[in-house]
Amino acid sequence: MTKLSHTLRLATASLLVLTACAGARQTVPTPAPESPTAALWQQIQSANSNLSCDNDSQCHSIGVGAKSCGGPENYLAWSSKNNDGAKLKSLIELHSAARRADNNRNATMSTCIATSDPGATCRAGTCVLTAHDIAPPPGK
């Protein structure tokens, strides 16, 4: 894949996410199947499949991915109701390291806009990211 087509794919994905409703259930684009981070992303999704909650204190947010200029690409909500989060956090650390390596190898550029942690809340028995006016940038 050429650098230009890679940049165009990233720009397209960014525009799609930025136009999505910020209050919608968290959606993070799945990496392309050829991506070395795809297997880690699937493991993260599996480790974070139970988002059930009884109250806000069981809901947490965690940064995922790595922007080329630093900081997470996105945030995920997760629940501590039936999970201490240790496996999820470990997988996210591995994924973030892989994303940093991808960024370095591909000379990836990003907007370098700081993305603040939106926090998480319990809505209708499910942990979700707290709604903000602007959707977070895409994760991988």
Report the β-strand fraction as a percent range. 5-15%
**C-alpha-based Rg, rounded:** 15 Å
Strand segment tally: 4
Task: Kindly name the structural category.
Answer: alpha+beta
Summarize the biggest pleated sheet: 2 strands, antiparallel
Give the number of helices.
3
Q: Give the CA-based shape.
A: globular
H-E string: HHEEHEE
Distance between the amino and carboxyl termini: 17 Å
Spans of at least 5 consecutive residues with low confidence: 3-27, 133-140
Work out the helicity level: 25-40%
The mean pLDDT is 77
Strands ordered across the widest β-sheet:
1-2
Counting structural domains, the number is 1
Signal peptide: 1-22
Keywords: Signal
Protein name: DUF4189 domain-containing protein
Organism: Duganella margarita
What can you tell me about this protein's structure?
- With 140 residues, the chain is an alpha+beta fold.
- Helices cover 34% and strands 14% of the residues.
- β3 and β4 form a beta hairpin.
- The chain has one domain.
- It comes from Duganella margarita.
Kindly summarize this structure in a few lines:
Helices cover 34% and strands 14% of the residues.
Keywords:
single chain, 140 residues, alpha+beta, two-stranded antiparallel sheet, two-stranded antiparallel ribbon, 3 helices, 4 strands, globular, disordered N terminus, disordered C terminus
Task: Describe the secondary structure blueprint for this structure.
Elements: H1 3-18, H2 38-47, E1 59-64, E2 74-79, H3 86-106, E3 120-123, E4 126-129
Antiparallel strand pairs: 1-2, 3-4
